[in-house]
Every structure is written in structure tokens, then in C-alpha cells.
Write a structure and sequence with these properties.
- The strands form two sheets. This protein has an eight-stranded antiparallel β-barrel with strand order 1-2-3-4-5-8-9-12. The protein has a two-stranded antiparallel ribbon with strand order 6-7.
- The protein is elongated.
- The termini are far apart.
- It contains one helix and twelve strands, in the order αββββββββββββ.
- It is mainly beta.
- It has one domain: Porin (Beta Barrel).
Amino acid sequence: MKFLTVCILLFSIHGLTFGQKVSESHRPFKYKNNFQFEARGHGLHYSLGYERLLINTPKWKCSAQISGAYYPPKTQLIRIWVPALLNGMLSFGAHHIELGCGYIFTSDGLYEFGKPDPIARRLGFWAARLGYRYQEPDGRFLLRMAIAPFAEHLGAYAPHKRWMIYPQMALSMGIAF
């Protein structure tokens, strides 16, 4: 019975979402590029990024995003973070639901007490994004809020635990051009 209820609910939402005529507020984005500053998220504490729209229809958009963050050795964090993601957006005028996945490339090795740790060598993390984006179709300002977890495959370092998942929230502000 629960399965039937969920199926009916999903078909109802699908009809509401895709069964409407495209209104004046449902337009493609005017600007296809943007720069963003992200707090938390896939750059760990912060990142600066660039995003380019690949698909730009009134209801569906797809973008490729690349960001970067650098941390000095004294922070004892991985020094370089380069998240690269593909994001899909379902649009409702100026409001968009985002879903994305990608990979975070990192510098080679962790730093422990200022020295590279050869045992804990991490080459990167798998990344995901589920969030909300506010951007007018012809506007330059954008605001994003997301759940942005990333995960690493531990492999031989921890045979009892294969994956380590790091939950993360993200807040981004950007300018389109």
C-alpha cells in the first residue's frame, strides 16, 4: 500500500512539474558563465569557482563547475582542493533544484605536524550535491545552498571500513556574465 501511495504521489508531482505550459518566468538563463565564492562545500572551508552552462532550456539546465582552494602547510590540511562537478538543474522561474556529482582532486598526501604523511596518501574524493539555487533567468546574481557530502574509498588502509563519508553543507554566492 505504501508503494502504491508513493507511486501516485510521484506521478502527481510529475504532472504538476512537466504538464504545464512554459510561462514568461520560465526562460533560459541569459548569462551562461559565472564566478562563485563557496563557504564550506567541496573546497572544505572555502573555494573560488567557475561554472559554465552546457544545456540551457526553460525547465532543465546542466552545468560544469570547477573550483579551487589552497591551505598552507601550517593548517595541517590537504593543501590543494580542486572540485570538478556536473550539475543538473530543474527550473521553476528564478528557483532551481540542483543535483550534481563529480570528483575532488587533491594534492598528494596529508600533512601531519608540517611533514607529508606517506601512509595516508589521498588522491581525491567523490562528491555529490543536492541543493537550491536562486537566480533570475536574466539576472547576474546567484545564491546557492546545498548538502554537499564527499566520500573517499579507503581501500587497503582500512579493510573493515571501505568508505568514509564526510557530510558537508555549502553556501555559494556568485556573479553571472
